[in-house]
Design a protein that fits this description.
Elements lengths: L1 H17 L3 E3 L5 H14 L4 E13 L3 E11 L2 E12 L6 E8 L2
Antiparallel strand pairs: 1-2, 2-3, 3-4, 4-5
GO molecular function: cysteine-type endopeptidase inhibitor activity
Keywords: Plant defense, Protease inhibitor, Signal, Thiol protease inhibitor
Family: Belongs to the cystatin family. Phytocystatin subfamily.
Amino acid sequence: LILFAAVAIAIDAVATDTVGSWQTVDVIDPHVQELGRWAVAATGLPGLTFDRVTDGEKQVVAGVSYRLTLEASSSGAKDGRYEAVVYEQDGSNSRKLVSFEPIH
């Protein structure tokens, strides 16, 4: 019984650390690449074309926030790196572009 209680407490501690903390995402995952593509389109910036997501993290709290580093190209300008934060609400196809900033 004591061993069971110790294991339950350890599992609870691990789960508590996971919820709300940022976790690395697999940038090869098609969903992650689609989020990057969607973020570039959602900016409405003319001529900006999505290239690829190069790095990213997610945070699970009443939905999922994704913090993505991505590359995009612009007609007449050199390629750039950007950080996009996209929020997806649980249980729906709802997305929101929280921020989109160039990385210098």
